[in-house]
Amino acid sequence: AETMETCVLTADEQARYDALFFEAIRYKERGDNAEAYELLRTALAIDPTAPEALFEMGQILVTYAAYGDTATYQRGLDCMRQAALRDSFHTDISEQLAACYARSGAYDQAIDIYRHLTAHRPKPAMLIKMAGIQEQATDYTGAIASIEQYEALQGRDENTSLVKFRLYSRMNDYSRAYAAIEDLYTENPDNLAYRVLLGDLYMQNGCKEMALAVYHDVLAVQPDNAEAQLSLAEYYRHEGPDSLYHVALRRVVHNDIIGTADKANALLRLAQRQPETAADSTLFMQLCAYALAKRQTEPDIAIVYFSYLKASGADDMRLARAGEKVLEA
Questions:
Q1: Which of 90, 102, 177, 242 could form an SS bridge with 110, CB 3.0 to 4.6 Å?
Q2: Distance of CA 76 to the CA centre of its chain
């Protein structure tokens, strides 16, 4: 460990240092970093060991170093490093130093700082930040360990499970990647959304038959499950046949559990299909008529309907009626 020297100031020196430091902060807040730099330089001449002045000086140097001016940038990092070493109580100094190291590609130094900060009393936010830097450094095993340390403190959730899925996928360990989502569902068996999430990830990664099996499993348990119905419609939109896509889409629009925005997005995808078939067009008009016959509290479906009519060259009267539906919502 480095030995840190400290300065013992007289009352007069302390008063002069404080006045210079706070004046520097005022100039920095106004955006006058040149004047702030000079005031900090004068303050550090009185107390070269003051962590707050070293930190502010380092921030100015790092932030305003000219492109390619690595010497100035490094001076800034050195100032911030000295500040962190001299003031271990204020962890935000160390965290900002770690962020600077990460931005400059010095991932190992950044990770070392977070390892030190989380060694004894790990904070969840710090573990997440460390995992992010480890992922940037392609230390996927280390990132997973940090996420699991976070989960030990906060519990497993959808976000951490998805991060682990991504990390294991980058390691080409798809067995553990899918297991991360399966574990989430096992812990929350009443939350079928996590089961659908697994199906969506199967679909995104080309495991189409497994995705379809998951959607059908969920709908067998809960036929009106919104997430599963939306995902099944998307599956058939890509994979066909059209007859099953149309059946799935009709169920989506008729499902009162599904929100207006999701229904509008599903209808928009139908409207944008290329090449559009007569059956697609007929179904689109039928489903819009069904949806718009009900009182609309949001304009999403009406906007999709209006846009479709306009692109199709509908006459002014039909467009005017469709426009009224938009304004009614």
A1: 102
A2: 29
Give helix then strand counts, H and E, for the chain. 18, 0
Tokens coding 329: 């919502």
Q: Are 63 and 73 in contact (CB under 8 A)?
A: no
Cβ 98 vs Cβ 113: under 8 Å: yes
Closest listed residue to residue 93, CA positions, set 117, 112, 69, 115: 117
Q: What DSSP character marks residue 294?
A: S
- Whats the size of the chain, residue-wise? 329
CA distance 272 to 53: 59
C-alpha pair distances (Å), 24 with each of 32, 37, 60, 80: 9, 7, 11, 17
Give the type of residue at 214.
Answer: V
Distance (Å) of CA 187 to CA 56, 145, 220, 321: 47, 20, 20, 50
Whether the bond between 241 and the residue before it is cis, its omega within 30 degrees of 0, is yes
Structure tokens at 274: 């290329």
Which amino acid would we find at residue 257? I
The pair of three-digit structure tokens given for residue 288, joined into one six-digit string: 């819009």
pLDDT digits (tens, 9 = 90+) for 186-245: 999 999 999 999 999 999 999 999 999 999 999 999 999 999 999 999 999 999 999 999
